[in-house]
Amino acid sequence: MILGVATMGWRNVENNLGSLPPAQRKIAEYMLKNKLESIFLTALQLGKNAGSSEASVIRMASNLGFSSFPDFIKSLQEEAKDQLSTLGRLQTHKLQPQTGGLIARVINSDLEQAKESLSTVDDETIKKLAAKICASDAIYIVGLRSTRTLAVYMEYYLSWFFTNVQLPTTDTMGNHLVAAPHNSIVIGISYPRYTRQTVECITLAKKRKFFTAAITDSPFSPLAKAADMCIVSPCAHIAHIDSLLIPIGLINTLLIQVAEQLGPKALKRLEELERNWTDSSVYC
């Protein structure tokens, strides 16, 4: 049995069940009884399984406020992916139609979500966060579990230009904040299912009057609510994996903006680094 299928989409169905015409209500009741299986059926399959018709399925999606049946089903799928356990995600992945090559399926999943995210990217917020980073005396980046990779990546490139970039753990976060310069920034990174300890770290930093920022998938996420500002990009879930392609693209944008705001200082530092790498024979 798979637990944790999303409730928001289903609540919409439940709340509107009584107002649907009989044929559409029959479909909705079938979906509520077969939540996991139904979100991977076509309109034709769903109508047939529910003892109704494809046309009634499409009209039901419209009556529930969606522009099309695919939009309706996709919303349920995405919500389910956000809340399922890793086991549930893998089981759900096996239920989906498998078309195309292995590599193409994985990459296309990321590309589809990346295209959708372009309309939600806020350039001004990224510029503001870059300015805050440049003006800070110390930078603390908190990323746990899979997002630790994003935190390490971000720390690596920021360390080219700043001498005080830290990657605290939950065990050392309090120690870091006690010793941190007053003009420090604490950046938390977390995606569904949201690591509780990351939210706690940001909450602690804000309580101690440090400026806090979140990199997350929604302005309504627990991390975003705890921070002073947030930049948003979705995180795709492919089977049991958190695919971080889109978040790392956002972080790349932020890192480039930091260098642009540093201006001549960034160019000078890169020249120094290049000389050091050459003298040290870093590259073959």
Quick take:
With 284 residues, the protein is of the alpha/beta class.
What's the arrangement of secondary structure elements?
Elements: H1 8-15, H2 22-33, H3 35-38, H4 43-49, H5 54-63, H6 69-83, H7 86-95, H8 102-117, H9 123-135, E1 138-143, H10 148-158, E2 165-166, H11 173-179, E3 184-189, H12 196-207, E4 211-216, H13 222-226, E5 229-232, E6 236-238, E7 241-243, H14 245-262, H15 264-279
Parallel strand pairs: 1-2, 1-3, 3-4, 4-5
Antiparallel strand pairs: 6-7
Helix pairs in contact: 2-5, 4-5, 9-14, 10-14
Describe the structure.
- Helix 2 crosses helix 5 (54-63), helix 4 crosses helix 5 and helix 10 (148-158) runs parallel beside helix 14.
- Strand 6 and strand 7 form a beta hairpin.
- The strands form two sheets. Strands 2-1-3-4-5 form a five-stranded parallel beta sheet, with helices on both faces.
- Helices cover 58% and strands 11% of the residues.
- It has helices at residues 8-15, 22-33, 35-38, 43-49, 54-63, 69-83, 86-95, 102-117, 123-135, 148-158, 173-179, 196-207, 222-226, 245-262, 264-279; strands at 138-143, 165-166, 184-189, 211-216, 229-232, 236-238, 241-243.
- It is of the alpha/beta class and 284 residues long.
- The chain has 15 helices and seven strands.
- The protein folds into two domains: 8-96, Arc Repressor Mutant, subunit A (Orthogonal Bundle), CATH 1.10.10; 119-279, Rossmann fold (3-Layer(aba) Sandwich).
